[in-house]
Target: Naphthalene 1,2-dioxygenase system, ferredoxin component
Amino acid sequence: MTEWIDACSADDIENEDLIRFDHDGRTFAIYRSPDDEFFCTDGLCTHEKVHLSGGLVMQYRIECPKHNGVFDYRTGEALRAPVCVNLKTYNTKVEDGRVYVEI
Model:
């Protein structure tokens, strides 16, 4: 069963950036796109479990800070080696200035 979790304020994330969100022993990354949309993925790289929150966000992509693997954060698709396993993505919504993630 899934539930909507209040993750952060929309103002906590700049355009083309992300924040780390920890909940119930799991780590997530919440992104704000250049189009002012919000997305959420698992917060650890699928290659070596490095926190993506230290990575570079640009044009709908997150680059892992350790080995420079790249994912499309909208779909979780692995785009550049060494990553070859996609990230899991989660639905998001914004209500009253708060970002919610469906976990």
